[in-house]
Amino acid sequence: IQEGVNALGGYGEVFQRNVLASGVIPQISVIMGPCAGGDVYSPAMTDFIFMVRGTSYMFVTGPDVVKTVTNETVTAEELGGASVHTTKSSIADKAYDNDVEALLQMRRLIDFLPSSNTSPIPEMPQFDDPERTDMSLDTLIPANPNQPYDMKELIVKMVDEGDFFEIQEAHGKNIVTGFARIGGRTVGIVANQPMVLAGTLDSDAGRKGARFVRFCDCFNIPIVTLVDV
Question: Which of 36, 75, 175, 180 has the highest Cβ tally under 10 A?
Fold first, then answer.
């Protein structure tokens, strides 16, 4: 019993550090294997979670416990796989096919973020002409207001070098959130997506957008809002 109490105390200390670091430094978790029990709470409290399809799982109790308690047969993938957490629960932000890709994309995300809430916004050299003209934007929005268009196409053409790092693209698809650069400096992008539900916002989209805006606010990242009404 005493060992169990000490273990729970250790979990509490980890969670306390997660809370104290929240909004002070960006916290990123990369799940590349099974993550179960008390271990799963800490990554769930971080700002961004990346998972690997087919090999990473996040759940408090595993399939065996579920089978014992509820007599329901469920696989680890169905219970807490990457597809579940990126599309339904929204716990995870992105999923990748292998560990290497997940780590490379994590490094790409870090390039967009300041190291703390007191650090300046990262600035990268950019080679796009700020006075450039893209004639395709003249025809992007259809003349028929009932015909949808892809807001991501506008975002990619608007930001530096078409580099847009989308967050939670598989969840709440009627709103688009992510990081990009304009004039070499990081910005957050928030836009409703006419291709999904005609761009109307529901509870999933509202939570997704609010969480992203809160993160940008903590780290002084300017937000560019694109609204199709």
Answer: 175
List, for residues 23-39, the tens digit of each pLDDT value.
Answer: 999 999 999 999 998 88
- CA–CA dist 46, 164 (Å, integer): 22
Q: pLDDT tens across 62-115, in order?
A: 899 999 999 989 999 999 999 999 999 999 999 999 999 999 999 999 999 999
**Phi and psi at residue 86, in whole multiples of 5°?**
-90, -25
DSSP string computed for 8-33: HHHHHHHHHHHHHHTTTS--EEEE-S
Residues 174 and 205 in one domain: yes
Number of folded domains in the chain? 2
